[in-house]
């Protein structure tokens, strides 16, 4: 019975620790989202939590259930802050890359539209040239027809008397 109690209490502690980890991860994502929103709306950096507020929020999260988990050392909170700052800088670089890709996409769309117009122009010109090249052949074919068949040569008065 005591072993079952120990096993259950260990499982409970593990579950509470995983709950705290999930809560910390949620906090990180919220902060990353705030950073992204503020950078996309060009707001002042006052709306985003600074490093000190981030550290305080992490400590509050960790000490909320103080019976479950001891407060970690300040080095760990600095690691979290440094990870947050790294993520923030990565988000900023990704935003710059995204803007570059969007502008390049717009340029390529414009170029594609221009190429499409040029293709349609060349296609219509090709059809016109083909039609105009066939015309002399039709005239030649008609003239042979009229010259060598007796019925047609009588109609056109090109028959030679015998």
Distance between the termini: 134 Å
- What's the structural domain tally? 2
Mean pLDDT: 76
Shape by Cα distribution:
rod-shaped
- For the secondary structure, the number of strands is 0
Order of helices and strands: HHHH
The major beta sheet can be summarized as: none
Low-pLDDT regions: 42-49, 64-72
Number of helical runs? 4
What percent of residues are in strands? under 5%
Please bin the fraction of helical residues. over 70%
Write up what this structure looks like.
By secondary structure, the protein is an all-alpha fold. The protein folds into two domains: 2-122, no CATH class; 127-156. The protein has helices spanning 2-40, 51-63, 74-148, 150-156. Helix 1 (2-40) packs antiparallel against helix 2 (51-63) and helix 3 crosses helix 4 (150-156). The longest helix is centred in the C-terminal third of the chain and has 75 residues, at 74-148. The radius of gyration is 41 Å and the shape is rod-shaped. The N and C termini lie far apart (134 Å).
Sum this structure up briefly:
The chain is 83% helix and 0% strand. The protein is built from four helices and no strands.
Features:
single chain, 162 residues, mainly alpha, 2 domains, 83% helix
Task: Spell out the blueprint of helices and strands.
Elements: H1 2-40, H2 51-63, H3 74-148, H4 150-156
């Amino acid at each position: 019975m005591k072993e079952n109690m120990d096993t259950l209490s260990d499982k409970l502690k593990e579950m509470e620790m995983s709950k705290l980890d999930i809560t910390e991860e949620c906090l990180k994502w919220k902060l990353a989202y705030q950073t992204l929103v503020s950078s996309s709306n060009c707001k002042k950096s006052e709306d985003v939590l600074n490093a000190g507020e981030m550290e305080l929020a992490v400590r509050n999260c960790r000490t909320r259930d103080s019976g479950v988990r001891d407060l970690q050392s300040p080095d760990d909170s600095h690691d979290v802050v440094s990870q947050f700052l790294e993520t923030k800088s990565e988000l900023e670089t990704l935003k710059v890359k995204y803007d570059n890709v969007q502008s390049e996409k717009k340029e390529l769309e414009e170029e594609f539209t221009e190429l499409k117009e040029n293709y349609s122009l060349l296609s219509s010109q090709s059809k016109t040239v083909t039609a105009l090249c066939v015309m002399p052949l039709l005239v030649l074919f008609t003239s042979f027809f009229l010259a060598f068949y007796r019925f047609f040569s009588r109609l056109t008065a090109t028959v030679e008397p015998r």
